[in-house]
Amino acid sequence: MGLTIAEKIIKNHLVEGEMIRGTEIALRIDQTLTQDATGTMAYIEFEAIGLPRVKTELSVAYIDHNTLQSGFENADDHLYIQSVAKKYGIRFSRPGNGICHQVHLERFGIPGKTLIGSDSHTPTGGGIGMLAMGAGGMDVAVAMGGGAYYITMPKMYKVNLTGKLSPWVSAKDVSLEILRILSVKGGVGAIIEWGGEGIKTLSVPERATITNMGTELGATTSIFPSDEITREFLKAQGREADYVPLESDADAVYDRIIDIDLSSLRPMLACPHSPDNIKSASELSEIKVDQVCVGSCTNSSLRDMLRVAAILKGKKIADSVSMSVSPGSKQVLSMLADCGALSDILASGARVLECACGPCIGMGFSPNSAGVSLRTFNRNFEGRSGTRDAGVYLVSPEVAAASALTGYITDPSELGDYPEIEMPEAFKVDDSAVLMPASAENAANIPIIRGPNIKEFPETEPLPDKISAKLTLKVGDNITTDHIMPAGAKILPYRSNIPHLSKFCFAVCDESFPERAKAAGNTVIVGGSNYGQGSSREHAALVPLYLGVRAVVAKSFARIHAANLINAGILPLTFVNADDYDKVEQDDELVIENAKGSLETGKFELYDVTKNIRIPLAGDFSSRQCGMLLAGGLLPYTKDN
User: Fold this and answer.
1) Which pairing describes strands 291-294 and 322-325: parallel, antiparallel, or unpaired?
2) Which of 132, 287, 310, 518 is the most buried if burial means most Cβ atoms within 10 Å?
3) Residues classed as catalytic
4) Treating both helix axes as pointing N-terminal to C-terminal, what angle do 100-107 and 204-213 enclose, rounded to 10 degrees?
């Protein structure tokens, strides 16, 4: 039986387990990346492990999230990360050099390698044939120390592309189509491989858009073959030596096969407040637009920017529209300036922001009250933009630019002929903003710089045999990590200060939760399906840990968040019968007895003292995860082992 692309990479990196669907496997990790919103905690955790040097082939620390420096906090975090990187053997990408996924694709990604990053959109690297996965900061810290990365062996899905995209239709529309087919839960537990004759018409930046958006399916990762198109991209980056051909075997076996005819697609949008709420642009032409944002790790490549510039050239955006453009990297920005496309963008009335995540995580450029914002981003969760009552739509660069010109949601095909763009044969390479670490011989003399906002890792506790706690919060389906631990310019500066950050936990759902949780001492949260979808931010587990959350009971969990809960020593359990979710209410007193003894069997029981009812729960934990929970989380477990 042949192997898929992902199975080939897994086989070459397998250090524990067997490639049997649904069983735990451990992988050797070649590369890691962090960004500054998650990086401070990841490096605090790496320091706690006590190793003198990272052991990966390559680790890069990017500064791309907390770039607004309205106080000392973000600047202090940047200095801390820079000093840690210099001391421990990590490359440091300075603020302004670009978004981690865009820069990593351009300068560091290698087909066939494994990459984990403390950001959920790390699967962008699948656009050049990497097995690239988002992970919690603790998992990244362990991987930097030479430890394996553990996942459940995924199912394998294949998406066969046929035909060719029509003018005005883009890779973003391919992403929205697969979200329409599968939903935000449809990829859970699976790796999605893209193939078929249609992929030969897609450039690496287009492929990277698709693998980036695969995160919104809940997939473990997404991946394209490494072929001649990959070779040409790497050659243009001056990295042809990194090229490795990689494709699936003809007799590879997939758990599901989906066919998409590229020629049948039309411009689409994801409507508020979920990436799978899909409609066509032509259906929404009466909706007035207040704001348009182009950029993010999804659509900030040179190709995307040149397309937007060509549409805007010689025209003015509507008086009622505020538009921002964020190039994904210094390379992209520099090349836009050199060819004159940047001037075309500016002349249209758009504002050019720095090469950073910016508006995508609510770090500036928030919409007006109840505003309609069209964004070429990957998430439109409620409140993520920084404006709670805004209506955020996810769109392609073509729809974004067309709508900015008309002031209404616009099918770009109405603009007439599709403007041609010419991609350069070689990209402008300047890695001067990536600082190299000190040599191993000189590392001991490098001091670590810690500002007053950088606090210690919260204390964890070994799993008790009996958990007695109040149900302090009950939430519904598709609760995101943005619900649990919001982003935004007011909150992100405190990512390395868990005590202060805790004041904002679940603020989108219930502003009183932090105080009630602290008053309760020990507490339990109950959620619906797909609890913890979205970002990989481990703060969505560490802050509840600080507030006394001992267990989370849900109908189902998103992969990364469930792992982060275990890493933090919090027990994630699921209802055996989904209807039992309706039997418990906020403020009920709960007891989970024999918690330690139930780890091995996976059969737990929740006793609702208030209602005097017993509810069966399940917890599917590997022996390693059992050990982690008994030890109080991944860090104490790593130290003990």
Assistant:
1) parallel
2) 132
3) 64-65, 119, 379, 535, 537
4) 140
Question: In terms of Cα–Cα distance, which of 134, 135, 141 is closest to 42?
Answer: 141
Cα–Cα distance, 595 to 152 (Å, whole number): 23
CA angle 319, 323, 325 (to 5 degrees): 150
- For 155-190, what is each residue's pLDDT tens digit? 999 999 999 999 999 999 999 999 999 999 999 999
Residue 459, pLDDT > 90, answer: no
Structure tokens at 12: 């070459």
Return the bridge partners of 374, or none.
Answer: 292, 393
How many angstroms separate the CA atoms of 298 and 206, rounded? 9
3-state secondary structure 185-224: CCCECEEEEEECHHHHHCCHHHHHHHHHHHHHHCECEEEC
Cα-based angle 531, 533, 537 (whole degrees, multiple of 5)? 110
Cβ neighbors of 187 (< 8 A, separation 6 or more) are 157, 214, 217, 218, 219, 220
- 3-state secondary structure at position 628: helix
**pLDDT, the chain, mean:** 96
- Average pLDDT of span 444-460: 90
Residues 6+ apart with CB under 8 A from 531: 475, 479, 552, 554, 555, 556, 557, 558, 561
* pTM attached to this predicted model: 0.93
